[in-house]
């Protein structure tokens, strides 16, 4: 009941404060196939509800266990279900799916800059310094974004807030925190699309171990996203 009330109350609230009334394209930057639905579904679906184009840049094929080709196909199906306009998946040996390999920030920056220019993105959304799950590849996207040269390109960056491990699975408590403290950048899955993140996640069959089903039911990131702006003295130059 709390979840339903929250979805109704917050649905679209972030749009008012987020400055997205001009409906300019938004770029979501992820590290692996399935990140888009595991972590960013609420903001993606909220933006699309308001007719704001959403594009996706995924910086690796998720080939850590040798299933990169399969995961490329899974990502394509997930993107179609979520309604993402364009997507690009990067296969670069310098950006491997590996929690122990450091990604060169200039490589990450290069692909983000290309996507921003190609799709005329005005806002970039990605992970924060903790990367939600703590995966090194997630964290390095944030690091690369903070090191982008400064300029006046009018491209703004927002980061997905990471919560404590226990809080991640206490959706009602996250809802209360968001309502009381962080309303400006809260995005909930629209009520009409409550199960869409789950449908998208089910396309990633190669990743559906037993604990992923628990994640789909209980993880707050399947229902609500809280973003915060990347603090820079100027906009990020792309």
Automatic annotation (TrEMBL):
GO terms for molecular function: N-acetylglucosaminylphosphatidylinositol deacetylase activity. The keyword Disulfide bond does not apply. Keywords: Membrane, Transmembrane, Transmembrane helix. One of its GO terms (cellular component) is endoplasmic reticulum. This is N-acetylglucosaminylphosphatidylinositol deacetylase. It comes from the Eukaryota. Coiled coil: none annotated. The chain crosses the membrane at residues 210-230. It is an enzyme of class 3 (hydrolase). Its EC number is 3.5.1.89. Pfam families: PIG-L. Belongs to the PIGL family. GO terms for biological process: GPI anchor biosynthetic process.
